[in-house]
Amino acid sequence: MASVNTPVYDRLAELKAFDDTHAGVKGLLDAGVRSVPRIFIAPPEVQASIEHQPEHGAPLQVPIIDLSAVADERTRREAVEQIGRAAESWGFFQVVGPGVPDRVLDEMLVGVRRFNEGNPQEKAALYSRDPARKVRFSSNFDLYQARTANWRDTLFCATAPDPPSPADFPPTCRDIIMEYSKHIAEVGEALFELLSEALGLCPQHLKDMECNKGQVLVCHYYPECPQPELTIGTSRHSDSGFLSVLLQDDVGGLQVLHQNQWVDVPPVAGALVINLGDLMQLITNDRFKSVEHRVLANRDGSRVSVACFFTTHLYSCSSARLYGPMKELLSEDNPPRYRETLASDFTRYYYSKGLSDESALLHFRL
């Protein structure tokens, strides 16, 4: 029994007090916080995995693939094979030569930083947990579901298939968001073609399934952390959609779980990080992998990243399209391992449990 002098920890009240500031994690630092509040403190096993990462021989390296090679028929096949191997063994790879001007990549990162480090009133005006809002700012979408809060703030922009009005985007990064989203849609189109070919299917196959129909930009800002050993930037999780394309700055901190160890995904100039989501693993019947990843907090400066999720769940709210293992990949020796589902139902379940190391795929497995 707690002594009368021991204050009762009311987690819900602390979560609500943080949420009600509409200022995010950056607001805590601006208010003078110099230690990690209790709602952000990670469980002991997570802290242990940050401090003591296993080493097994030579460091593992996430594959790096040159996308500029796909323009030449002679080298396209090799690139397709590389992408297929990476999708099957890692579920993660980096691409160089993606066809996006360096200026656009740089300005996108600068724009997100400018928004987060600028006028707090601009952020507060966009602060919302309403999933119907196509442009919104918040900290931790799963704040009230997760075991602990993550040390990050997020600007969410649903840019396809029905983009919001330009006036809905924050003025500090409006133009570059609109420009960047067009470029990244083209990168996604190319990747879906290459992934289709890697499966032995026609280039249009995944696009015909509308896997590229929806597009969401999730702009993360990870403020410098006074005690990075106690918390985490983004908890261990896999993504829910079909494909994710990530732009990261030069700070680092992204890690992918491979062969039961955390492997750094170091920043590469001009590169984009590609990873496959749960729905891609589902429709390929486990041939392509959706793998867990996380982002570490750091003491030395803030980190910016921009993830583009290709996911149909927003569009599928009015769609009856069912997603299950593709019949072209099935055989007597490779029967379906998942039941069919609406993308919206899959995503609803994924978000209901928040970020965690328990894959949503288990819920849909036969």
TrEMBL record:
The keyword DNA-binding does not apply. Signal peptide: none annotated. It holds the Pfam family DIOX_N. InterPro entries: DIOX_N, IPNS-like_FE2OG_OXY, IPNS-like_sf, Oxoglu/Fe-dep_dioxygenase_dom. GO terms for molecular function: dioxygenase activity; metal ion binding. It comes from the Eukaryota. This is Fe2OG dioxygenase domain-containing protein.
